[in-house]
Amino acid sequence: MWIQNYDPAGNIWLSALVAALPIICFLLCLVVFKLKGYQAGFITVVLAAAVAFFFYGMPVQLIGASFVQGYTNGMWPIAWIIIAAIFLYKLSVKSGSFEVIKQSVISITPDHRIQVLLIGFCFGSFLEGAIGFGGPVAITAALLVGLGLKPMYAAGLCLIANTAPVAFGAVGIPITAMTDLVGVDANSVSAMTGRLLVPLSFTVPFFIVFLMDGIKGVRETFPAVLVTSTSFVVTQYFTSNHIGPQLPDITSAVVALVCTTLFLRAWQPKNIFRLDGETNFTSESSLDFKTVFRAWTPFLLLIVLIIIWTNPLFLSLFGKGSALEFTQVTVQFNATVGSIKSPDVLDSTILHDVKVAQVVNLIAFQAGTAIFIAALLTIAFLRIKTDDAMECFWDTLKEMAIPIITIGLVVAFAFIAKNSGMSTTLGLAFASTGSAFAFFSPIIGWIGVFLTGSDTSSNLLFGILQQASAKTLGIGEALFLAANSLGGVVGKMISPQSIAIACAAVGLVGKESELFKFTLKYSVAFILLVATWVLCVAFFLPWMIPESVPLAH
User: Is the pTM of this model over 0.90?
Assistant: First the structure.
């Protein structure tokens, strides 16, 4: 048994400085030395392993186990989701359906600024609420490239658009997983998150248009963007405060998409903005409903299967003792179960298990499987030849080879950082700042998502720390728990995992440093604004904080 030591240097800030070395290394590799993603990932993993061994005293076998666990998570479910999503997109292109999809979107509006809102923001939010794990960025970025945006631009804009829905991503798992851990009712944290997200969710669509076409673009598209922002925010707020954390993304995305589409039937910007210089657009009347419906079949199947896949009744069919239990093919790592103990942040004499070993489910319960089945059904519905389908799948595997390695490395780094105690060291350093912690609370979530690539993982990593700090300061714990998730949403756009996925989706393998440089400045600006907002709520707007109800036992 090995017990984590959060402060090996005897000074929490000095320990935090050493713990931050792999992060600093990763930043330098991408921003300064402009290395490819897999190169930066490899160097960072090596440095993280060295820090874990020499500074934290983590045994070599546990460092190796953490690497294997992280790399396995990178392969499954993350890489599986991306492979299935890109395969589905390629089938759409191969069948000729994507050309019709392009024309159907253009028939709503040929303006690229609003198309990014419809696809990147609205459709991406729906996918985030349903599947998460990088799938939304992969699918929407690929769609936008097909609509005429440059790959780097499409990837960057989709990463920024993906911020608003991340807190409630994958059917509310980031919130529910954290509240189960800390013993608080999920509805109070969901409500607080919805309230904190109002300024960010309302601003993101305007910011996207501003990035594309400056103040002039915001002026020209203001009515449509206002409809998108308002309908999204109002629905997200209502759902998170009155229904719970599972549905805010899905409901707000659908309502915003419908409201914006209907509004565009009555209003269009006077000046059409295009990044590809295209001026010849097919009129709406040239596309009949049957043609458009057939073209959208791959993505309609995707939506239907995701809805089925996330339904508890459907999932129960695969549960233990059920008729379909035999479909559960698993790979289990047993060698290191219970080998790592983490001291409780409130009482260091209490030790918790850090689960290095895990069960990997290879069949059901994976969003990637739902997407892959949608791809297989697409082949049948669109009558795509077997040879063409195999060519699409083979091309997907070839294009994804390097990105998969990159994703595996960055997730392996995340697990070494978590299992060695580096991540907790960074969180504890900020927690030692007293009242100023209200400012640093979302920054901890931001760092957590940067390290792990997942808002869920960040919430699980720092949830107890956020709760303890809130109790110490006498501030409603729902605020800091929600702040951790809120900080994570703007950390998502610079997460190495997200960067690798976005580059893979648009064919920019090896250009990770350029995309990271594009999103970094915006992520830093957003987290500073978010941190200031949380500070204001903590000390000037405490009436916004709902009462945290303990879970019934």
Answer: no
